[in-house]
């Protein structure tokens, strides 16, 4: 950064560059030099008693899992569906989330160190006062709280971060349930919100996935001859495949953590809450999921094959629930383009997958959820996209909906349509009261154009910390006037 400041060279830092669907390693502006921090792979500190780990940017979910396993440390990695080769630090800075107990990954960050635009180093007040251990244990520190400035921003290059890990509980289970009719969605939302309020700490994240989305995890994309005139799955085909794979209009997936007796009591509460709304309610431990896989191997023909596919996905999902990273969610990126994919080491960016994420926040009210679902179902097919909808709880007041825009990247027309479609969804959703919690690099300029006071504050801070506009220019903050 001292060299960059001397020669006025703009830079864009990346950790692993595996930010699938949000731009991967792409910068927000042209004419910048990438600073690749992927080789900084040290786990600098770990307190096995208190469960706080300090990592560099290149430490991936898989590396942290291996470190914990080698040491016999019974803690959970803050996993995501992005796979084991993605940076722990970068995901937290992007305010990513998962379904393990610390679902909001930035909330688990206690301390960080960053290099500023002039090459000076920012340390938290407690660390600079000679108490680095206290800085790792107490996220608020003392005096003004600066750590949040480095989240979703270009105010500095974060070179290390301390994160609180959750100890693996005595019992971890998933709860699966179905909504046999789309009309049950509103009632299910009410039940989910009530359970999240009543079972804090035991009930983790709750996902609601529409039939389309679950089919993308369990069935190959249909042959072109089965698609409609727009190249999409017609409703009767979606229903037919749903019957074949035993997939209801909506599927629920929830996580349970705690002592066995506490989880057992929570199961009873969940059964009561979903009575008359949820069907095929099932609680599974990793061991029980293994039995299901073994059963699938014994069944003949298509039934065994379909059950085996579902069982494999379920087993991988249970691994994630226990804080063990894997690639169970990555095949989605290859689904619509029917791209060949490796058994492991998937890299959607390098493999040419067409993927953009639209990830709006939705208030956890039945009417708001229905408004969003109707909006997505109407707009996505008009844009040439399959309406793959997931609703993931963010506490007991909000859902985040991760909607993948899948396309064939080899088709330039499809790529342009996807980019245009993403911007349309963001703006049309904004008018309805839905807005993303994070943005693709291509969407940030339009986002800034919608800002006034907020953009002004961000710009003033940036001018103070980075007067030459060197670090990730245009990233969630406007360019300095002289650079426009």
Number of helices, counting only DSSP H or I runs of 4 residues or more:
16
Which CATH architecture of the largest domain is right? Answer: 3-Layer(aba) Sandwich
Q: What is the molecular shape?
A: globular
Strand order of the largest sheet: 13-10-12-11-16-17-15-19
- Percent of residues in helices comes to 25-40%
What is the total domain count? 2
Superfamily (CATH H level) name of the largest domain? FAD-linked oxidases, C-terminal domain
Termini distance?
Answer: 22 Å
Strand residues, percent: 15-25%
User: How can the largest sheet be summarized?
Assistant: 8 strands, antiparallel
Radius of gyration: 23 Å
Q: How are the SSEs ordered, and which strands pair?
A:
Blueprint: H1 2-7, E1 11-14, E2 33-36, E3 43-47, E4 52-55, H2 61-70, E5 75-76, H3 88-93, E6 109-115, E7 121-122, H4 125-128, H5 132-137, E8 157-164, E9 166-167, E10 171-179, H6 185-198, E11 203-210, H7 211-218, H8 235-244, E12 250-258, H9 260-273, E13 279-284, H10 286-298, H11 301-321, H12 332-335, E14 353-358, E15 360-363, H13 366-382, E16 390-394, E17 398-401, E18 403-408, H14 412-432, E19 435-436, H15 444-449, H16 453-465
Parallel strand pairs: 1-2
Antiparallel strand pairs: 3-4, 4-8, 5-9, 6-7, 6-8, 10-12, 10-13, 11-12, 11-16, 14-18, 15-17, 15-19, 16-17
Helix pairs in contact: 6-13, 10-11, 13-14
């Amino acid at each position: 950064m001292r060299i960059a400041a001397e020669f006025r060279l703009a830079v864009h830092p990346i950790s692993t560059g595996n930010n699938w669907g949000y731009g991967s390693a792409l910068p927000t502006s042209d004419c910048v030099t990438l600073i690749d921090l992927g080789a900084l792979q040290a786990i600098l500190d770990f307190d096995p008693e208190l469960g706080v780990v300090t990592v560099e940017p290149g430490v991936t979910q898989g590396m942290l899992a291996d470190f914990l396993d080698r040491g016999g440390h019974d803690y959970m990695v803050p996993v995501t569906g992005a796979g084991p080769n993605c940076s722990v630090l970068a995901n937290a800075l992007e305010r990513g989330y998962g379904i393990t107990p610390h679902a909001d990954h930035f909330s688990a960050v206690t301390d960080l160190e960053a290099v500023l635009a002039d090459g000076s180093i920012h340390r938290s007040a407690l660390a600079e006062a000679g108490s680095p251990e206290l800085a790792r244990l107490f996220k608020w520190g003392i005096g003004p709280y600066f750590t949040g400035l480095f989240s979703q921003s270009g105010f500095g290059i974060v070179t290390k971060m301390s994160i609180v890990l959750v100890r693996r509980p005595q019992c971890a289970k998933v709860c699966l349930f179905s909504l046999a009719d789309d009309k049950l969605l509103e009632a299910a939302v009410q039940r989910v919100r009530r359970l999240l309020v009543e079972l804090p700490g035991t009930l983790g994240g709750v996902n609601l996935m529409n039939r389309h989305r679950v089919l993308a995890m369990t069935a190959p994309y249909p042959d072109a001859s089965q698609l409609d005139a727009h190249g999409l799955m017609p409703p009767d085909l979606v229903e037919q495949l749903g019957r074949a794979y035993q997939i209801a209009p909506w599927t629920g997936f929830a996580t349970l953590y705690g002592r066995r007796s506490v989880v057992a009591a929570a199961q009873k509460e969940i059964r009561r809450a979903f009575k008359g709304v949820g069907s095929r309610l099932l609680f599974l431990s990793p061991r029980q999921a293994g039995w299901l896989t073994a059963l699938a191997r014994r069944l003949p023909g298509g039934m065994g094959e379909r059950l085996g596919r579902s069982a494999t996905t379920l087993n991988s999902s249970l691994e994630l629930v226990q804080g063990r990273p894997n690639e169970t969610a990555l095949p989605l990126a290859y689904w619509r383009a029917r791209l060949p994919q490796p058994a492991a080491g998937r890299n959607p960016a390098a493999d040419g997958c067409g993927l953009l994420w639209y990830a709006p926040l939705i208030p956890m009210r039945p009417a708001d959820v229905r408004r969003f679902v109707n909006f997505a179902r109407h707009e996505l097919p008009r844009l040439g996209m399959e309406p793959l909808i997931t609703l993931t709880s963010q506490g007991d007041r909000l859902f985040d909906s991760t909607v993948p825009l899948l396309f064939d990247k080899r088709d330039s027309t499809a790529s342009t349509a996807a980019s245009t479609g993403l911007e349309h969804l963001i703006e049309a959703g904004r008018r309805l009261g839905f807005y993303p919690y994070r943005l693709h690099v291509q969407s940030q300029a339009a986002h800034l154009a919608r800002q006034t006071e907020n953009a002004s504050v961000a710009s003033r801070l940036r001018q103070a910390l980075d007067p030459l506009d060197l670090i990730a220019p245009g990233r969630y903050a406007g360019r300095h006037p002289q650079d426009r």
